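From the methods appendix. Each design record in this collection lists the tokenized structure first, followed by the designed amino acid sequence. Records were kept in a plain field format so they could be parsed without special tools. The example shown here is representative of the layout used throughout.

RECORD:
FOLD TOKENS (157 positions):
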């Protein structure tokens, strides 16, 4: 390429030190960095999660006020493709989906369920992700760099 900038660097020493890391060390770097990246996402989700302000209807199985907010958490899943999940557990996942995406109100008549209205979605999970993605990405990259620096410095030359 005649118009571009070329960067050449001898990475032999870096590659040797990276290859000297053990699998548990690599796994620890990934997990700690991904969990750190999920923290701003969790804070954003918690800030935007709607909380019920009305009184509970008697004799219902409605979730108590603040239940969805208290249920938000970080879940790390290791593997060949490690994942970090920020959101509700299985217990209140249905509620988060209803609030986030909206739902139809229907009658409970035996003769047939008739739609009587539509509750629009709040899209709070998407908003939380959009609001925190820059900080989460920065935390992920800086976490990996910091962890690698600590681990590689411990590898003898």
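DESIGN:
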């Amino acid at each position: 390429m005649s118009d571009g900038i070329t960067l050449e660097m001898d990475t032999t020493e870096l590659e040797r030190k990276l290859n000297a890391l053990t699998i548990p060390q690599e796994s620890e770097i990934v997990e700690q960095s991904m969990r750190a990246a999920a923290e701003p996402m969790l804070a954003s989700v918690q800030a935007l999660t709607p909380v019920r302000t009305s009184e509970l209807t008697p004799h219902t199985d409605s979730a108590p006020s603040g239940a969805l907010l208290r249920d938000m958490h970080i879940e790390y899943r290791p593997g060949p493709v490690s994942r970090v999940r920020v959101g509700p557990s299985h217990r209140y996942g249905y509620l988060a989906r209803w609030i986030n995406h909206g739902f139809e109100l229907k009658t409970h008549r035996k003769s047939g369920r008739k739609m009587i209205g539509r509750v629009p979605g709040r899209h709070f999970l998407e908003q939380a992700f959009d609001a925190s993605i820059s900080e989460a990405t920065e935390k992920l990259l800086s976490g990996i760099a910091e962890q690698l620096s600590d681990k590689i410095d411990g590898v003898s030359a």
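APPENDIX NOTE: The chain has a mean pLDDT of 87.
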